[in-house]
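User: ok so my PI wants both of these folded by tonight, can you help

Assistant: No problem, let's get them done. Here's the first:
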Amino acid sequence: MTSTDANDTTSEHGRLLADEEDGTLSLRIDNPKRANALDGPVLDALIEALRAPAESIRVALLGASGDRHFSSGLDLGDHDARGLVDYLPTAEEHLGRAAAALRECPVPVVGVINGAAFGGALELAMACDWRIAAERARFGMPAAKIGVVYTAQGLQRFVAALGAPRAKELFLTGTPITADRARDIGLVDRVVRDRDLWEVARKEAQAVAASAPLAVAGTRRVIDALAHGLPGEDATRLADEARRVAFASEDFREGLAAFRGKRPPHFRAR
């Protein structure tokens, strides 16, 4: 296993911690002085880490350091109202690029929500392929409480996942909700005991890493297209192309041989 800082920030800024082990890239937001807030260096490091992971990486986990905060969201600094109006569009665009990097990452990314996830941090979590939360995790969208209308791009993720009524409840009340309630409405997909969070996340990552990479990539691409409303005929063409690539691969032959030989497969992503 290797452990590195994914950026070279000084202690006054946040940073992204990165570990690689057995095909899994574990990323942790680390900004303890500001409740793991998402500042520029953290978002830049996340974008860079997700853009071109090492060839050996099959899956990524996105979590945070500590046991209280996943992230308090965008770092708003000490801006007054006028300063915040000038600052927010740039910060939101930066956040949007990080969310896009999660969606466009070549490998699946699982959100590992260890604690409080608010505002823009919740948008990042929603951009992951799925989310596992600790029982202590809390979730909230306080934008309306400070007089901010959220971006259409950000709102779209929540409307798609929750439906309009629950998205309205989350955004218009601004009331934090528990991990169990978040699971019930579709913000997270699984809730586990606090002490088991990373163990469970790593086991799920290992299961993905053990699957054929081309099949994982093709299936993920088709599911995302269907989730975003790709018409049936176009989805069929996309799936047919992914199937063609998979059936022509060495990994398909290896997977079939391993299944028949009752042994673990050794996939090579080709």
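One down. Here's the second:
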Amino acid sequence: MRILNRDQIKLLAIIAMTFNHIAHVLLVHGSVIYEVFEDIGYFTAVTMCFFLVEGYQYTRSKKEYAKRLFIFALISEIPYVLALGFFQLDVIFTLFICFLILCIMDSGLETWKKNLLITGLTLFTVICDWALILAIAAILFKKSESQPRKQAAAYGIIAALFWVLNVPGYAAQIHAPYPFLSGYAAVHSFYAVLGIIASGVITLRLYNGKKSEKYRIFNKWFFYIYYPAHLFVLWLIRITA
């Protein structure tokens, strides 16, 4: 039953993202509530990437879309670094790079040039939030557009890749000598993957392919404004608490 429109799903993604950032900025690392809030947030980035690919297809001006992403990536960077306490390019930068990858995929360049540029941009995301994963997701979503089975397979690949990349990190927290043999790390990483699985279920089974008929301007700009604003507020809460 396809009961959710694009803007309703984006709102769910924004709420999930907020839980994740509350965990990282305000909660004690490793606590149960920290882990729950963090894992909820893994729903967001892949969902936004899915809609980025859809938006790329239907936007009236790819130039304006790219410019909007880049400007808000710049605006968001300082609140992002302040809130999280380390340097990394924020996720809007990652989505901007994903957008460039989509443009290259549709360009008239020779195949080898396309592959070289896409590989380079994908590797560049190692200094970004959601390194590698979102770039690969954008490619998979682009290649599977309007093909439900291939889209489901794309989500499966993204979830599996995310699981594999997270196991060593979780294993390191308990100093496990053989990361992929650590039951704790494997199970913990699976919990993190649940957000991506939820994204796949909701976008592929509940999304009705429409956007909200109400508050169109608000819906267009809300995520862009909310992202840096909520990070700045969380930073203020942390330094004044």
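The mean pLDDT is 92. Residues 6-240 form one domain. Good luck tonight!
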